[in-house]
Amino acid sequence: MRLHQHPIYEDYFYNEDTHEIYCEYLDQIIKPSLHSSGYYVFMVEDFVESTKKSYRLHRFIMECLLGREIKEGYVINHIDGNKANNLPSNLEEVTISRNTKHAYENNLAKAKKGSDNTQSKLTQKDVEKIFELRRNGEKVSSIAVMFEISPKTVYAILGKKRWKHIG
What we know:
The protein is an alpha+beta fold. It has five helices and nine strands; from the N terminus they run E-E-E-E-E-E-E-H-E-E-H-H-H-H. The chain has helices at residues 57-66, 96-105, 124-135, 140-147, 151-158, and strands at residues 3-5, 12-15, 20-23, 28-30, 33-34, 40-46, 51-56, 74-78, 91-95. The strands form three sheets. The chain has a four-stranded antiparallel β-sheet, with helices on one face. A three-stranded antiparallel β-sheet has the order 5-6-7. The protein has a two-stranded antiparallel sheet with strand order 8-9. Strand 3 and strand 4 form a beta hairpin. Helix 4 (140-147) crosses helix 5. The chain is elongated and about 80 Å long. The N and C termini lie far apart (62 Å). The mean pLDDT is 91.
């Protein structure tokens, strides 16, 4: 039996053979539950400090296997994109940036378009109005002033480099 003790919660172990979490203090196997986020979670208790903490299963497993906490600025990536697959061979410690790239590369996350993007200053109606104004002969510099954006942004919209889905 290959048991890995958690580096912080020393009463908790990950059994690499059965893929179960065992609490020595309670002398029982801990059953994680599926959170609405799609991750399996469970409660760990510090029996000395009398505190409880919710733990994501994949993070707990990696900390047990690594013998340390996850590094600052790092997260645990599910290589196959399946949040429920917590086998060690499917988990890797990566930077937040790499995890985000992985999500987009594997269609696990989708870019927000138009006004759904929180960075957007414009609405779909604004963009439609920009096209209309330009068709009617309005200068790009005037359009930029009207919408408080740069002429470069107006050209990017008209050239379909931004707001590609509107036209």
